[in-house]
Amino acid sequence: MKKILFACALLSVSTAMFAQKSALTKANTLLGEALADVKQIKYDKVDQAWEAIQGAMANPVTEVMPETWGTAGRIKAIYMNKMLTDRSLNGGEMDMDAFFDNQYDIVTFYSKSDSLFKVPNAKGKMTKDEDIAKNHTMALNNSHGARSNLLIAGNALMEKDPARCRKFLDLYFKSFKDPLFADLDLANTDSMLPDAYLFYAVSLQNEAKTPEDTTRVAEYFEKATASKKNAISAYIMLMDIAKNRNEMEKWAGYCNTGIDKFPTETAFPRNLINYYVRENRLDDAIATCDKMIQNFPEDDYGYYWKAVSYYQQNKNTEALEWFKKAAEVNAENPESWAGAGNSAWKLARDNQDNKAKAKPFYDEAIQHYLKVKELAPDKPELWGYFLYAIYNNSGNTKEAANYKQYSK
Question: Is the model's pLDDT at 400 over the cut of 60?
């Protein structure tokens, strides 16, 4: 009697396992029917196959079978091809959210299939090496492109849906250590990883609320500085974070690095010069101006602020020299001519006890202010009072009278 009961129990277990595996069998059968004519794919059968395989994916018996996930990947690949075909027929229109989800599933399913093929089955038996290799090649070929689209999804979603952005990028990051993609040597062949860090940082930044959140954002922007395309943006973001934290030395450090790494980008030296001048770190300002002059000899910005830095140190001879050089580079900037006039006038007053030495400076100051008047007649604050004062103090009351209205 016991033997009969035991046999019945075995039969019951076998029947249950068969029923559990039937979802996988059904999915594959339906998929075969759907693809009987690849020119006329029966998508209703594909839909039915997808319904069936979801049962197998959720079943404890079949969820550990590599065939389950390989079949799921095949179905998602069929859907992907349909999406791309429909897009070409719809003038390029496509539900990108659905497409990105599809790509995520393809990578996930094929990765799981590849992994499970290397695990002993319920009886402890290993799959043949040639079958493992065959499945691996198939899984890699079908998921390689989808993996690349994970990065595109992250880029597209970083602003409008930060959480979904990170979902796709987390899988993209994971792929670098996924055995499925080991043959691709991603660490050496995928140069877009730093850009992915930038997209991730932006997504985090859009949701950051605490200092700890901001620290995490900064960590990802640091990783993004290795980007070939977006490194400048990464440094600018790091500068903004440092500035918001009032970590101005760190801010200046990023700016200096930007100057060295991106010698054709003017934003870094311009910002750093302005900062040093505001902080009265005039020697640092001059050194930065020298870098800018070297990198941008046709831009009067470095010349002008070098002159200003000398002027603020009351080094009027040097200031006059560099204001004049700034005017040579850009003769249309009235500020440079005004700076030259101010420097010459100060040199004249410094030598007022020696009229022979002072007069050339007064004359030069007049010429510079007249140039300012020519360039900016609507800005008498740059030239009006100065011309009145010089003419009046030098005894040329007739000319001084022309500018008396600016004497107050």
Answer: yes
